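> example.struct
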């Protein structure tokens, strides 16, 4: 192991950030780098599923050293509520001393963290290490994040007050202000708002940003990031589009094939609608919403594979357990399972999403618009029905529809309930109509482009090579 080629990765405490970071680790290993993944103890997050994912992926990557930093006193517990990001940023800040001591104990070449953990750049800048951010969402979202701290006029309305007024951000399609992150829709005097804006202002402090995307998928956004008009007065660090990092948590599971794949084997090509709403269960649907989905699927007449989780409790004192087993007999309408037997399959809690999307029988994907899921749909060539739930997913929805052109919208999500008639109508649109065929055709083009980007000589391969060359150049200058 060459100590001078050691890279430390510092992933965030969520599946959607942790998995792409481990995929970056695999790419660095392929290029001859020693990789250490430094971790804040996953147990500080009240999410059994996340800790299990960390353990499985660590066990599946023996060449990578996983190092858990020593605990801090009385760490804040991370539950998914309106204060999550504020507590998370506080936690990262409190771990900076632990991170500092660890980095001083090794011969480090590169440090990389994900964007919510940019507070760690305080440490690496003090120590003089090259420091990069892995941005696990789209280049378009990165454009928006870079502009948000400067977009509001002095004394003008806040993002919250703008409501559904469309924002005209440079290089992006118009987007309702209400689609922004919940943290910037808070009162501008709130601690949450101030902390989020401070985090976004750290974007230029990294030596560069690796984005989990590929150039042809987001040509407009990538060009915008290179344009000095993107953020007047700021010089953005170099951006490297090195994705798509697409993989399955199931890669670290037992090799047994999931039962839903055998069921898909018996279905016609592109005949099945797949419904799945993320890996952590944060946006679990209410009982009422589950019933509306069921009725819509029943009336659509199309085959479906639906991943169902138990609704969150209405009791604020009772923390939500995303691994809770749903009682389908109670949650779904009477007779639903019998009426749809043969053309529908309901799976509890989890399905191997990458494998399902790539199966020949899958014809459409109803998704919460998390960027990892979007990329998994794109690389499988599957058209999507967008149903955003939280975080930047509302922004992704606009991008999927307006720039990428692979999705249509499930209307009603913003009011908190998508009706059965909408589910039926949109399933029929994607599976039966000319508009659905056009979505499928564009999805097929992006699938081919994604493969080409990752091939020898492809844009993502070249971008990663440029990233490594820039790191080497920076190291040479430091030694002079």
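> example.seq
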């Amino acid at each position: 192991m060459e100590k001078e080629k050691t890279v430390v990765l510092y992933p965030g405490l969520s599946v959607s950030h942790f998995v792409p970071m481990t995929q970056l680790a695999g790419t660095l290993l392929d290029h001859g780098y020693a990789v250490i993944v430094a971790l804040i103890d996953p147990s500080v997050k009240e999410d059994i599923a996340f800790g299990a994912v960390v353990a499985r992926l660590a066990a599946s990557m023996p060449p990578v050293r996983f190092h858990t930093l020593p605990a801090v006193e009385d760490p804040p517990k991370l539950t998914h509520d309106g204060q999550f990001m504020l507590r998370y940023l506080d936690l990262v800040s409190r771990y900076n001393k632990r991170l500092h001591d660890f980095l001083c104990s090794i011969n480090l070449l590169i440090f990389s963290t994900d964007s919510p953990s940019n507070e760690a750049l305080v440490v690496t800048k003090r120590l003089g290490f090259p420091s990069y951010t892995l941005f696990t969402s789209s280049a378009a979202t990165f454009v928006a994040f870079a502009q948000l701290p400067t977009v509001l006029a002095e004394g003008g309305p806040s993002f919250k007050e703008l409501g559904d007024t469309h924002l005209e951000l440079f290089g992006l399609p118009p987007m309702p202000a209400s689609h922004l992150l919940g943290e910037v829709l808070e009162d501008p005097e709130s601690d949450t708002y101030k902390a989020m804006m401070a985090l976004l202002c750290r974007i230029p402090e990294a030596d560069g940003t690796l984005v989990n995307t590929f150039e042809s998928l987001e040509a407009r956004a990538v060009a915008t990031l290179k344009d000095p008009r993107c953020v007047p007065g700021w010089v953005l660090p170099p951006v490297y589009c090195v994705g798509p990092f697409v993989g399955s948590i199931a890669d670290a599971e037992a090799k047994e094939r999931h039962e839903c794949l055998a069921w898909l084997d018996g279905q016609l090509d592109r005949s099945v609608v797949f419904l799945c709403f993320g890996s952590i269960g944060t946006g679990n649907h209410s009982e009422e919403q589950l019933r509306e989905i069921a009725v819509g699927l029943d009336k659509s007449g199309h085959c479906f594979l639906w991943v169902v989780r138990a609704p969150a409790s209405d009791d604020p004192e009772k923390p939500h357990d995303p691994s809770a087993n749903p009682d389908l007999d109670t949650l779904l309408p009477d007779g639903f399972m019998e009426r749809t037997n043969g053309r529908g399959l309901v799976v509890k809690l989890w399905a191997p999403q990458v494998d399902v999307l790539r199966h020949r029988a899958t014809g459409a994907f109803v998704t919460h618009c998390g960027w990892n899921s979007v990329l998994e749909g794109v690389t499988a060539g599957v058209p999507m029905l967008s149903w955003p739930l939280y975080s930047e997913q509302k922004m992704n929805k606009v991008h999927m529809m307006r720039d990428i052109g692979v999705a249509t919208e499930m209307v009603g999500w913003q009011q908190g309930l998508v009706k059965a008639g909408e589910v039926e109508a949109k399933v029929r649109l994607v599976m039966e109509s000319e508009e659905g065929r056009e979505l499928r055709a564009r999805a097929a083009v992006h699938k081919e482009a994604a493969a080409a980007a990752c091939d020898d000589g492809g844009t993502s391969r070249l971008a990663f090579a440029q990233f490594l060359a820039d790191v080497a150049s920076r190291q040479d200058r430091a030694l002079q």
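> remarks
The radius of gyration is 22 Å.
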